[in-house]
Protein: Subtilisin-like protease SBT1.7
Amino acid sequence: MDEKKLSNSPIMVFFLASLILVLGVPRGLADSKVSSAILKRDQDAVSTYIVHVEKPMGRVFSEEEDLDSWYQSYLPVSLSSSGQQPTIVHSYRNVITGFAARLTAEQAEALKSMKGVVYTKRERILSLHTTHSPAFLGLYQQLSLWKEANLGKGVIIGVLDSGVDPNHPSFSDEGMPPPPVTWKGKCEFRATECNNKLIGARNFVNSGGKASAVPPPRDEEGHGTHTSSTAAGNFVPGANALGMASGMASGMAPLAHLAIYKVCSEEGCGESDILAAMDAAIADGVDVLSLSLGGGSVPFFDDSIAIGAFAAMEKGIFVSCSAGNDGPLNSTLSNEAPWILTVGASSIDRTIKATARLGNAGTYDGESLFQPKDFPSRLVPLVYAGANGNSSSALCAEGSLRNSNVRGKVVLCERGGGIARIAKGQEVKDAGGAAMILMNDELNAYSTLVDAHVLPATHVSYAAGLKIKGYINSTSTPTATIAFKGTIIGDPSAPAVTSFSSRGPSIESPGILKPDIIGPGVSILAAWPFPIENDTKTTVTFNIISGTSMSCPHLSGVAALLKSAHPDWSPAAIKSAIMTTANVFNLAKKPIINENLLPADIFTIGAGHVNPAKASDPGLIYDVSPVEYIAYLCGLGYSDKEIAFVTQKNVSCSSVRSIPEAQLNYPSFSIILGSSPQNYTRTVTNVGSTGSYTYKVDAPDGVDVTVSPSMLKFSGTGQSATYTVAFSRSSSGSTGKPFSQGSVTWVSDRYVVRSPIAVIFK
Structure:
């Protein structure tokens, strides 16, 4: 039989078909077809791209429509073979020269070659990262900074988040003056839902910047309502969550105005929407921007938050951002740019205690928001969820306890596995368990959280969990119960850094110490848009949640108070005042501790814990001008083009005197030290009383530090003085540690101005 006849025979056709069914398509053919299909799919898929274009020479756009038309000219109709028409979703005026558009990969690639297009990038999707906290920070009505700053009156805080519940009493405008005449923003709620407190509200999620295209920025997640009320919620008496943490709720700046920019949904927070909201906020006239969101470390020229924040800073707008919730590992920060205040999270001195009591008389304190009054004090059987050897059962994963005998028992579950803490309790409840003891994993150690559990529960430390496991294994009849002790104030170990708070050193710029500061971010009570209990009739709804998302608006509110008290201070001056007056000791006058109950290091706390009252009168400040940031960016080794993405100005580093990172006039020092000595200067400006300052050095281990001159004298406010700090390896040799820490402090008869020092050895 010849080849031609064989190839056409039914037997051969069947054989080839059978071979394909059994073995799959021959490898080369399969790879080629699959790759082509994937490539075609990817080319046809539509994503949002941020497009930077050259500024038009000598052209000024008087109307928004003119700018839109010019940007539209970059999108030819015949750009794609897929049939997908490109559409602009945001036109930027302030943060960058450019726009965001819905494009296919093919269209985006074609755009790159167009004249005038400087840079095109696909947007990243970023993630969202109080009755007692004002008092914990020393803020009281008619006293201290609240009195001096008039509760933040006249200052506008812009919050970029998941929206807001405009009808919550935290956003009442009782006692509020009208917004400043400089306010130019708009409200996309009904006219009756905006007021002198909530002066602006816009939705940028898939909006294309057009209010008619999307619903108003109502908060469907809860996150934005919580952060907004933390920054500037009005006074609400009788606030509580499930009856706990009762008291008068308020934000840090209760009489500041709020402008809400919705940029996040359940899918996340699109970079193009964030950039559009920052663009609008600058035009609207906000004084402070608060962003409890972020992504991982990227170069500043590729970081939309850093780019938007630079434009805001140039307009005198203070920008506060969360550090991220990826601790306790090092170098896990978001929002690292030096013109941003990067905020880590710490505890307050309030706990909502729930104590596990065992049959051997052992007791282990934990926390829970749900505090049932009728839970029996008698001991009941105690079981470890992972006793069957199944790791998913140990984690109390969904469905893992279905066939376990936990009915009527207290169940010990392990934290982790990507399973929500409350969801673990739901699994125990569904399986008939009477209560849950949730033990930490080793990484989270002693950092426990207050949650609105669905059954009687307590969240205990890893050490406590190991002891409870040991007790279970020591007897054939282990028993336990939980004693609910309610709200307790006065924990002397507060503030303590929580395990989730992201840590430095900064990846993108290790010569700048980050985070800058820590503030309350653990178990914070603030406004919530819907009930967390079964009572659907209540209109005063609050919740307790945790995250650097909660610490960020605390600092945003503090910045608003400082802006109100000192309207002439620059964003860098406000940051300096916050950092140089920070506390490094807890209420017990001992060093602030971390999740392991050990002293927290400098890459965990930055300058320390915010002290609002002292920040209002810091004595000296370290100021930084926009021009100095350009010299710093040149020192990072960025190209002129990359720096222009950040600054929106043509920059030539060859004609700019670039500076090393650590030379930026920052209120802290972060030094990468080898065998060669290094010298850095700082310039301080007097904003306090006249007088002289002498220095005090707490030298990092393994480092010799000298300061000159030995004294700074000021005869008037506004005077500046420069000093030099020299760093060198000490003759005692290596410490055997990767880094060391210390401080340099300028002391007068009235002020203590402290700058932390981090030294990374190489």
Summary: Residues 640 and 651 are 5 Å apart (CA to CA). The chain has five domains: 3-42, 45-122, 127-346+495-618, 350-489, 665-761. The chain has a mean pLDDT of 90.
